[in-house]
Design brief:
SH3 type barrels, globular, mainly beta
């Protein structure tokens, strides 16, 4: 398991720009899975992060509460 604050340390710290994988639940209740992604920015007040899919160049905004898995580890708040 991994805490959301540890994800912040990974995506904004020394490993910034290093690709990761994640799974999240969308607002529509669907599973969103991402491989080979990076965090381009985050907003700690809103608890959101912009995630770029490197293969497609798509950027999605994800709320921390939507994350259920990060690099194969279950996420807890």
């Amino acid at each position: 398991m991994i805490h959301v604050s540890a994800i912040n340390s990974i995506t904004e710290g020394a490993a910034k720009g290093k690709p990761f994988s994640f799974k999240a639940i969308t607002k529509a209740g669907e599973l969103l899975a991402g491989e080979n992604c990076i965090c381009t920015s985050s907003n700690f007040e809103r608890k959101t992060r912009n995630i770029k899919f490197l293969d497609s160049e798509e950027i999605r905004t994800i709320h921390d509460i939507q994350l259920i898995e990060f690099n194969g580890k279950e996420v807890f708040l």
